[in-house]
Design goal:
single chain, about 250 residues, about 35% helix, about 25% strand, globular
């Protein structure tokens, strides 16, 4: 089976200075990988490196059988914060159609297949009824779901999400989790960063703990335990004695 993502001894960073080192990952199609660590640990940098937006400074990085930048057209991305101006008069459908631009080109008209892909993506995130609404009028959670729809409209083989559950309401959170499970069941490999250990435990097949370097990687039952979390959070993990942990950011 082809590997969706393979990092071997990878270091990533900016201007020749590493932000994250010693990364060893292997992700197969349909698997879900959670990146967990404190603020500034390198989670977003790692995601951007998979997209070829941050350089790999050392080691070997393979994404969908190619170098990261060469595989970008087959990967989807949901950023932590959207850059779309809430006052810009663009509809929900138009935002999701942006996910098809790599297929149809910027100046060519949308084909029936493109319109069907957009409608299907909006149905999956539960926002088909809002297709004609202006994007800026939606709630934060709804906008996040629209950005997810934009990514999946491109039919990616690998989907990367930076803190997809931050600031979303319970309805949007449930919808996002459901869609991610459906995508992975269909063979899409997923990488998402999160501060929520319950989400990582329930949703991920693999968890990668990072803080300047990779601290641990493996199934949630092995990584989301007291000692690996203490290493990752510099000792700021408090064991509640019943299997639960509280993470205290420095």
């Amino acid at each position: 089976m082809r590997i969706a993502l393979r990092y071997t001894g990878v270091s990533v960073g900016y201007h020749g200075t590493p932000v994250l080192t010693h990364v060893d990952l292997e992700l197969r199609p349909g698997q879900r990988l959670a990146l967990v660590g404190p603020n500034g640990a390198g989670k977003s940098t790692l995601i951007k490196s998979v997209l070829g937006l941050v350089p790999v400074l050392g080691g070997t990085a393979e994404v969908l059988g190619r170098e990261p930048a060469a595989a970008r057209g087959r990967a989807g991305y949901v950023p932590q914060t959207d850059t779309l101006d809430a006052d810009f008069p663009v509809t929900v459908r138009q935002v999701v159609m942006m996910g098809r631009y790599r297929r149809i080109g910027w100046w060519r008209p949308a084909r029936p297949a493109d319109r069907d892909a957009v409608t299907g993506a909006l149905e999956r995130v539960g926002l088909a009824a809002r297709a004609g609404h202006r994007f800026g009028t939606l709630s934060g959670g709804q906008r996040r779901r629209v950005l997810l729809a934009r990514a999946i409209a491109a039919e990616p083989r690998l989907l990367l999400l930076d803190e997809p559950f931050n600031g979303v309401d319970a309805v949007s959170r449930e919808a996002i989790v459901r869609v991610l499970r459906e995508l992975s069941a269909g063979g899409t490999a997923l990488v998402f960063s999160t501060h929520d250990l319950s989400v990582a435990r329930d949703l991920a097949d693999l968890v990668c703990l990072v803080n300047g370097r990779q601290r641990a990687v493996g199934p949630p039952a092995e990584t989301l335990t007291a000692e690996p979390l203490r290493r990752t959070y510099s000792g700021n993990a408090v064991d509640l004695g019943d299997g639960g942990l509280v993470l205290v950011e420095p």
